[in-house]
């Protein structure tokens, strides 16, 4: 099984950015834990702060991988293009968010991804990724 985790803007700052919301662990450290936890899954990782790069990656893997775990960050709430890319592919997508977006600013309550995702996991910290991977297994 081949799954890719795609993270959007500012998620490269995990471990430094707002630890009261996002925790103290870097994503790279957490990814190593996931790879140990799921030894029979090929886990790849991609992060970009650039909307077009995220769309290109979704299109690149969206017909050949077994799953995409997508945390588009703030683009979740603004990017029709990322939503359209998810709709255009055949690989199932699980939308994840580390924080509970519904307990935050009202603009974070809208997602352009959810309608075309297999599912949405919100508010379980980094464990949201773990739960998304389990949903594909």
UniProtKB/TrEMBL annotation:
<feature type="site" description="Transition state stabilizer">
    <location>
        <position position="17"/>
    </location>
</feature>
<keyword id="KW-0028">Amino-acid biosynthesis</keyword>
<feature type="binding site">
    <location>
        <position position="77"/>
    </location>
    <ligand>
        <name>substrate</name>
    </ligand>
</feature>
<dbReference type="InterPro" id="IPR036441">
    <property type="entry name" value="DHquinase_II_sf"/>
</dbReference>
<feature type="binding site">
    <location>
        <position position="108"/>
    </location>
    <ligand>
        <name>substrate</name>
    </ligand>
</feature>
<feature type="active site" description="Proton donor">
    <location>
        <position position="97"/>
    </location>
</feature>
<comment type="pathway">
    <text>Metabolic intermediate biosynthesis; chorismate biosynthesis; chorismate from D-erythrose 4-phosphate and phosphoenolpyruvate: step 3/7.</text>
</comment>
<feature type="binding site">
    <location>
        <position position="84"/>
    </location>
    <ligand>
        <name>substrate</name>
    </ligand>
</feature>
<keyword id="KW-0057">Aromatic amino acid biosynthesis</keyword>
<feature type="binding site">
    <location>
        <position position="71"/>
    </location>
    <ligand>
        <name>substrate</name>
    </ligand>
</feature>
<dbReference type="InterPro" id="IPR018509">
    <property type="entry name" value="DHquinase_II_CS"/>
</dbReference>
<dbReference type="GO" id="GO:0003855">
    <property type="term" value="F:3-dehydroquinate dehydratase activity"/>
</dbReference>
<feature type="active site" description="Proton acceptor">
    <location>
        <position position="22"/>
    </location>
</feature>
<feature type="binding site">
    <location>
        <begin position="98"/>
        <end position="99"/>
    </location>
    <ligand>
        <name>substrate</name>
    </ligand>
</feature>
<protein>
    <recommendedName>
        <fullName>3-dehydroquinate dehydratase</fullName>
        <ecNumber>4.2.1.10</ecNumber>
    </recommendedName>
</protein>
<comment type="function">
    <text>Catalyzes a trans-dehydration via an enolate intermediate.</text>
</comment>
<dbReference type="InterPro" id="IPR001874">
    <property type="entry name" value="DHquinase_II"/>
</dbReference>
<keyword id="KW-0456">Lyase</keyword>
<comment type="subunit">
    <text>Homododecamer.</text>
</comment>
<dbReference type="Pfam" id="PF01220">
    <property type="entry name" value="DHquinase_II"/>
</dbReference>
<comment type="similarity">
    <text>Belongs to the type-II 3-dehydroquinase family.</text>
</comment>
